């Protein structure tokens, strides 16, 4: 993709207004927190302190809207603490330009490294830089700096207190995550009726697992409906795939296939009913026609062999899901997940070593997080110096715009830059026009700022352009409280925002971290994870008495994470203005299809694991022993652009087929697995021609 095409595409994406589910009560609660802080400071007679305190309440509430499974009050307090520290340090250095620029660069570098922990941490770090730039322009002494820092922390405490005192839809995010996972299973069942090898996106299951991580205290208070259905949803997916697959399930045509389609449709109806019950905290309501389909016919079930076993297992899992979701929605004791009472979420202080390890892993030149941190630190320092040198005043708006739009990848940075500039133009035009025409006083400015905050919280998920317009108008009204003239505010805001966007754009062009160059590594990681998953499943088929289900589970989670990393990397690479480096778009698509097939085939083998008392399979053992090293060699070949050799696997498969009596699910699935690996080799070999 050329630079022109990439910029056009990202500009259109940034200006897109998305339809999103609005949360008016949560938006009202956040706006009330800002109103309480601003109104309290104005009542005490200090407009400057009102402006400073408003940033703390405003930013703390923004963090609570982010997709995090941490308690909302904790996020508000974390933001307030970071904002108050950054504000105080900024005040200490604000009178010395060189010292402040050094501090700004170092602090921005640390904030950029926060993206190694996760997007929520990265956003919190970005907000601390923004507040350091804004509040230190308000004149004060050292004691005044302490007062400003304390007020910012107070704003976060107010937001946290409001969340505790006025909770809205307790466990709502966890309910939505679990309901989305079950709804995704229902959609998968419907698609399998028409496409027996339909793909499945595991992201909803991954989100549900993250949402189920709780502290011991939360486990005692968690509603009963959130205990068991997630584990059942994990178990339903391979059973659905096994029932629909024409190789290990029912044939493609005939009465057995008709029965499979009926079962899949009824299963989708039941899973949707369970998802609705969990989402809205009410009993499960099942339609009678679905229940009739799930009953075994009086004449006997027409399914045979593996398909019959899959159908029996599916009926059992659906009954368990309905029973688990039909419990009273009352706080109860913790559930069971594997060999632990619940998925434990570490306490905050125990997260410190995890955070340090995550940051340490990114301290290498090839890391896109480190490059982002260096890039944003340099832009913040240069933007501050350039903005200060210009005759506009309030030069902090240039680095502020840069910091707020810059992200570790190219697409988001450019999308946010275009959207923020257009939104800022609209917001300052509206805010400046209102002030110019009506000349509102301090309290009216404060009320208008709170209205803008409410609109920003309400429309937060609709797009950057919309929220940037609300934020721009909010800043205009907020600075109007402190006596800033609207003409100067509009001029400064527009020109310096444009300058910040240009600096951010140039920085990425001069010091990029292209995702395209990482595609081979992502593909190799996905292949290696798929190999570990297949080997773990085959080991159980080989030695049923020595089964290690925990190993299979961990390998499956690694495979899902590797697949999601590949998908996200491919999406980012597709928007970059660079050509492929050894991996063409056609090869990407074919390789992705092959590895998806590899994962699906392994899942079919997992759905038909033998019991502990089953006979060992020497053929499966020999095949698994060859598969592990072969996949490791292939992963190295993918990274280095070499040839993949599956000759050993073909030999082991032929020996297994020669020694097997009547085959079996594992043997048939192993043949499909080898076919998928051959397709992967052909896809990558075409790229080198």
The dominant shape is: globular
Average pLDDT: 84
Helix percentage range: over 70%
Contiguous uncertain segments of 5+ residues: 329-340
Taking the sheet with the most strands, its summary is: none
SSE order: HHHHHHHHHHHHHHHHHHHHHHHHHHH
How many β-strand runs?
0
Number of helices: 27
Compute the separation of the termini in Å: 21 Å
Strand content: under 5%
Structural class by sheet pairing and helices = mainly alpha
The overall number of domains is: 3
Using only CA atoms, what is the Rg?
A: 29 Å
Membrane topology: Multi-pass membrane protein
Transmembrane segments: 31-62, 74-92, 98-117, 149-168, 373-397, 417-438, 443-460, 466-486, 493-514
InterPro entries: Memb_transporter_dom
Keywords: Membrane, Transmembrane, Transmembrane helix
Q: What is the topology?
A:
Blueprint: H1 3-15, H2 24-43, H3 47-64, H4 72-93, H5 97-113, H6 119-135, H7 142-165, H8 172-194, H9 203-211, H10 216-221, H11 229-244, H12 255-280, H13 288-294, H14 305-325, H15 351-361, H16 368-389, H17 397-405, H18 410-438, H19 442-458, H20 464-481, H21 486-510, H22 519-542, H23 549-573, H24 585-607, H25 618-640, H26 647-659, H27 665-688
Protein name: Integral membrane bound transporter domain-containing protein
Pfam families: FUSC_2
Keywords: Membrane, Transmembrane, Transmembrane helix
């Amino acid at each position: 993709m050329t630079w022109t095409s990439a910029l056009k595409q990202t500009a259109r994406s940034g200006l897109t207004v998305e339809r999103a589910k609005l949360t008016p009560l949560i938006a009202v609660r956040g706006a009330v927190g800002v109103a309480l802080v601003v109104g309290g400071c104005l009542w005490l007679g200090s407009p400057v302190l009102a402006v400073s305190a408003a940033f703390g309440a405003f930013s703390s509430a923004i963090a609570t809207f982010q997709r995090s499974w941490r308690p909302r009050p904790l996020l508000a307090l974390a933001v307030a603490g970071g904002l108050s520290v950054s504000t105080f340090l900024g005040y200490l250095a604000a009178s010395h330009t060189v010292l402040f620029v050094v501090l700004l660069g170092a602090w921005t570098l640390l904030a950029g490294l926060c993206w190694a922990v996760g997007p929520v941490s990265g956003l919190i770090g970005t907000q601390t830089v923004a507040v350091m730039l804004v509040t230190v322009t308000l004149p004060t002494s050292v004691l005044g700096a302490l007062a400003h820092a304390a007020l910012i922390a107070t704003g976060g405490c107010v937001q946290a207190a409001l969340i505790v005192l006025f909770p809205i839809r307790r466990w709502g995010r966890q309910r939505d995550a679990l309901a989305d996972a079950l709804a995704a299973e229902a959609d998968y069942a419907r698609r399998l009726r028409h496409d027996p090898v339909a793909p499945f996106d595991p992201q909803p299951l991954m989100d549900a697992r993250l949402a189920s991580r709780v502290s011991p205290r939360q486990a005692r208070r968690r509603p009963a409906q959130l205990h068991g259905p997630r584990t059942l949803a994990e178990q339903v997916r391979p059973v659905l795939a096994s029932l629909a697959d024409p190789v290990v399930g029912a044939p493609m045509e005939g009465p057995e296939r008709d029965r499979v389609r009926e079962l899949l449709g009824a299963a989708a109806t039941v899973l949707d009913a369970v998802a609705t019950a969990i989402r809205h905290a009410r009993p499960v309501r099942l339609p009678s026609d679905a229940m009739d389909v799930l009953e075994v016919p009086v004449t006997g079930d027409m399914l045979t062999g593996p398909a019959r076993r899959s159908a029996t297992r599916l009926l059992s899992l659906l009954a368990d899901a309905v029973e688990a979701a039909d419990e009273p929605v009352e706080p109860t004791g913790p559930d069971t997940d594997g060999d632990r009472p619940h998925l434990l979420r570490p306490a905050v202080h125990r997260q410190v070593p995890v955070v340090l390890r995550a940051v340490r892993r990114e301290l290498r030149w090839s890391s896109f997080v480190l490059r982002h941190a260096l890039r944003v630190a340099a832009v913040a320092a240069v933007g501050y110096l350039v903005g200060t040198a210009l005759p506009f005043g309030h030069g902090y708006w240039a680095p502020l715009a840069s910091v707020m739009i810059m992200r570790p990848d190219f697409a988001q940075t450019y999308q946010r830059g275009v959207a923020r500039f257009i939104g800022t133009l609209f917001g300052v035009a509206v805010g400046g026009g209102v002030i110019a025409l009506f000349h509102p006083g301090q309290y009216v400015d404060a009320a208008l700022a709170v209205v803008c905050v409410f609109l920003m919280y309400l429309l937060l998920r609709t797009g950057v352009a919309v929220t940037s317009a609300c934020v721009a108008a909010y800043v205009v009204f907020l600075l109007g409280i402190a006596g800033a003239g609207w003409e100067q505010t509009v001029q400064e805001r527009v020109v310096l925002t444009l300058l910040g966007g240009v600096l951010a754009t140039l920085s990425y062009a001069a010091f990029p971290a292209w995702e395209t160059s990482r595609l081979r590594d992502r593909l190799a990681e996905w292949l290696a994870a798929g190999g570990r998953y297949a080997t773990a499943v085959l080991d159980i088929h080989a030695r049923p008495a020595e089964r290690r289900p925990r190993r299979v589970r961990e390998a499956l989670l690694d495979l899902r994470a590797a697949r999601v990393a590949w998908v996200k990397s491919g999406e980012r690479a597709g928007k970059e203005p660079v050509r492929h480096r050894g991996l063409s778009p056609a090869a990407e698509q074919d390789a992705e299809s092959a590895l998806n097939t590899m994962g699906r085939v392994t899942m079919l083998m997992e759905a038909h694991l033998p019991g502990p008392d089953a006979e060992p399979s020497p053929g499966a053992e020999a095949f698994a022993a060859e598969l592990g090293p072969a996949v490791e060699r292939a992963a190295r070949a993918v990274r280095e652009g070499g040839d993949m050799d599956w000759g050993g696997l073909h030999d082991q498969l032929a020996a297994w087929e020669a020694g097997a009596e009547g085959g079996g699910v594992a043997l048939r699935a192993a043949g499909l697995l080898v076919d998928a690996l051959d397709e992967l080799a052909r896809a990558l070999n075409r790229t080198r021609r």
